[in-house]
Amino acid sequence: MSGLRIFDENAPGAPMLDTGDPAAIARELGAIGVRFERWDSPVTLDDDAEPEAILAAYQPYLDRLMGETGAGSADVIKMTPDHPQAGALREKFLNEHIHTEDEIRFFVRGSGHFVLHTSGRVYDALCTQGDLISVPANIRHWFDAGAKPDFIALRVFTDQSGWVAHFTGDAISAQFPVA
Ligand SMILES: CSCCC(=O)C(=O)O
Ligand SMILES: [Fe+2]
Ligand code: NI
């Protein structure tokens, strides 16, 4: 189940809000400019579907997203618990960073935490299968799917250069273990 916990940035371990209600999640995230939607996708895929097949199956949805945002490209990120780069990729996403474009992700399968840091608060959004999240450009955030990551997500890029992160150097993610 999707979830949202909101903390004061100085009070890890004491959430001021903890909800699994999709409408509340969308409302709270919407208040900081983050789009969150649950999609009832009729697409069904084999467990071993290739990225090309996943992209093709979701093409109508991707076209809609790209049309709305003017975005240019999409890819598939698939993490499995035994992925040889699981540890390295975890480290890469786990440090607080920003992007100069919106971070648009759709969870085809599995789950992961997007953690947003803004206005003195930390928002831990647990995204699960069927969730669309769009994190606006320049919002500080990190991502964690744990030591045994298990998810497939679509990534939509507006920037031709693909995934580019600017790390803030703030070690706050170490204070907020989420996965
Ligand atoms: C679910 S996509 C991996 C996370 C990511 O792209 C990011 O934090 O920038
Ligand atoms: Fe990011
Ligand atoms: Ni802060």
TrEMBL record:
The record marks D102 as: May play a role in transmitting local conformational changes. Its cofactor is Ni(2+); Fe(2+). It catalyses: 1,2-dihydroxy-5-(methylsulfanyl)pent-1-en-3-one + O2 = 3-(methylsulfanyl)propanoate + CO + formate + 2 H(+); 1,2-dihydroxy-5-(methylsulfanyl)pent-1-en-3-one + O2 = 4-methylsulfanyl-2-oxobutanoate + formate + 2 H(+). Its EC number is 1.13.11.54, 1.13.11.53. Ni(2+) binds at H97, H99, E103, H141. The record marks R105 as: Important to generate the dianion. Binds 1 nickel ion per monomer. Pfam families: ARD (PF03079). Pathway: Amino-acid biosynthesis; L-methionine biosynthesis via salvage pathway; L-methionine from S-methyl-5-thio-alpha-D-ribose 1-phosphate: step 5/6. It comes from the Bacteria. GO terms for molecular function: dioxygenase activity. The record marks E96 as: May play a role in metal incorporation in vivo. Fe(2+) binds at H97, H99, E103, H141. Signal peptide: none annotated. It is an enzyme of class 1 (oxidoreductase). InterPro entries: ARD (IPR004313), ARD_bac (IPR023956), RmlC-like_jellyroll (IPR014710), RmlC_Cupin_sf (IPR011051). Keywords: Amino-acid biosynthesis, Dioxygenase, Iron, Metal-binding, Methionine biosynthesis, Nickel, Oxidoreductase. Catalyzes 2 different reactions between oxygene and the acireductone 1,2-dihydroxy-3-keto-5-methylthiopentene (DHK-MTPene) depending upon the metal bound in the active site. Fe-containing acireductone dioxygenase (Fe-ARD) produces formate and 2-keto-4-methylthiobutyrate (KMTB), the alpha-ketoacid precursor of methionine in the methionine recycle pathway. Ni-containing acireductone dioxygenase (Ni-ARD) produces methylthiopropionate, carbon monoxide and formate, and does not lie on the methionine recycle pathway. Monomer. PANTHER family: ACIREDUCTONE DIOXYGENASE. Belongs to the acireductone dioxygenase (ARD) family. This is Acireductone dioxygenase. It comes from Acidiphilium iwatense. The gene is mtnD.
